[in-house]
Amino acid sequence: MNTSPSSSTMRPDDIAAAIRDLLRGRRPGGAGPVIAGDAVLVPGRSPHSAATAVVAALDDDANPRRILPFSAIEAVRRGVPLRAVHVWTRHGRPPEGVRRCRHDRMTDADLLLSQVLYDYLPVDEADAAEREILYDDEPVRALVELSRTSALLVLAARGLGGAGQAVGSTVRGLVGRTHCPLIVLPPVDPIVAGDPSGAW
Predict the structure, then answer these.
(1) Is a pLDDT exceeding 70 seen at residue 66?
(2) HSE-up of 64 (CA within 13 Å, CB side)?
């Protein structure tokens, strides 16, 4: 996996600065974010005795190419399964270019997870990965609840619709609220990654 700063126009210290500002308002005096390579680690709110998986939170943008390999390595390191998760909401179709139609229908959400697992992981790792669709109109709420039994929650700083922002709305909602540690990765730049459309 290429995790060098050149693979994204966003620097980890920009993400960490935005996360630090969010933490000040939510958890005064709490541990701040830590930069490790191009990943930003945000400590969780509570220790876990029943952590069941490393959770890769995925959407239909270019970011799974970064999130899945990182999450797979962490799952092996921690000795827990990798779980690919997508939060499906019942909202109407968003504006063109912000989200693809791949998960505008509930029945398409399973295809999203299966395809990205085999696109970005070796076959044996994709076969072994757990898949979970969460049905909730509030993705942040669903992921916070899932974090209660997770070893680690991994997602990108923002998706396609968040250009110009240090972190997107999902990360803003999660920072300082997850029970397990949260890893925030710089988003994939679709053009740098060789995918001018941004879709995978």
Answers:
(1) yes
(2) 23
